[in-house]
Amino acid sequence: MKTINWGIIGCGDVTEVKSGPAFNKVSNSKLVAVMRRDAAKAKDYAQRHHVPKWYSDAQQLINEPEVNAIYVATPPLSHEEYTVAALQSGKPVYVEKPMSVNMAAAERMLKASAESNMKLSVAHYRREQPMFKKIKELIHTKAIGDIRFVNLQFFKSAITAAELEQPKTKWRVNPAIAGGGLFHDLAPHQLDLMLYFFGNIKAASGISLNQAGLYNADDIVSGYLQFGDGVIFQGLWCFTVGAAEEKDLCEIIGTQGKISFSVFGDYTITITKNGSTETLHFDKLEHVQQPMINKVVEYFLDGSANPCSAEDGVEVMRILDIFSNSKL
User: Fold this and answer.
1) CB neighbours of 282 closer than 8 A, spacing ≥ 6?
2) Which among 11, 55, 201, 209 has most CB atoms closer than 10 A?
3) Structural domains present in the chain
4) Mean pLDDT throughout 191-215?
5) Mean of the per-residue pLDDT values for the chain?
């Protein structure tokens, strides 16, 4: 295999700009087929993005001889089904985050990868973005001394009734499809970065509630992690604050200073040390998944290590389960 010929299962919103075009922009990679259950939308996507083949049946795409790798970009409920089917058909998989709806499903995907001896990567794509690689470097080089704790706050105003009627929003707050609510949609990026920065977790605890009752999923989550080197993480997510209280802030506190950044906001890192402040700016990426897709292609071609393993994906799902299922 010298070129990865991709087939996408689920060519929805996430594939329009964030990921889809990037498959044709990295070396040794080509997007050759897409699938969506709505045949008209699948055909439209293929025509707009100049993709040679389109399907309305996932298994037909998996069976397409020209396709030798699969990108699963459906809502989480069907991640397991399509990932396992592709792996058992002898094709490696790049699956969207969260890996699935819960840890048990993610573990079955990991098992299928091992049993089929096929590669599986999870789309925690911020790991490969320059900004977050720089943060990891700052931690590793002790730019702010020894890390003591991390404080993450993520607050969003409530989804409106009109937004809840939009299909692209509605499924994200349906636990049966998404595994949870907006926490399950957004927090995997943040929690995976903590694993990427600090490694193995020794302890985890959390609690979640549905305070506003706007939908079936919980809308506030609090969680704590203890990492193997003693670093403590505390996070609070609330999705029903007033507009003026919205916040996307992560602070890494060390013995000599602090690193501050937002996970979903601007591309800047602020380093505070010895009374002085330095701000690092990074270019906005046209396709946010392109650096990750590049690494996945290299991995599938045996040219590099897995940028985000199935084991890491399972661990993120374990944390999500603990934070959102630990009721008093």
Assistant:
1) 129, 130, 131, 134, 267, 268, 269
2) 11
3) 4-126+288-305 (3.40.50.720), 130-284 (3.30.360.10)
4) 97
5) 96
In the chain, which residue ranges form alpha helices assigned H by DSSP?
13-16, 39-48, 58-63, 79-88, 103-116, 130-140, 161-164, 167-170, 175-178, 182-198, 290-300, 310-325
296, two tokens: 């996945």
Under 8 Å between Cβ of 83 and 106: no
Report the predicted TM-score, pTM, of the whole model to 2 decimal places: 0.96
pLDDT at 325: 85
pLDDT digits (tens, 9 = 90+) for 208-245: 999 999 999 999 999 999 999 999 999 999 999 999 99
Q: Do residues 49 and 41 make contact, with C-beta atoms less than 8 angstroms apart?
A: no
In the block, which residue shows the tokens 């003693």? 230
Q: What percent of the chain has pLDDT over 70?
A: 99
Q: What is the pLDDT of residue 159?
A: 95
The verdict on whether omega for the bond into residue 75 sits within 30 degrees of 0, i.e. cis, is: no
User: Which residue reads 């089917």 in tokens?
Assistant: 85
* 232-241/247-254 β-pairing: unpaired
Helix (H, G, I), strand (E, B) or coil at 153: strand
Separation CA 183–CA 238 (nearest Å): 8
Give the CA diameter of the chain. 61
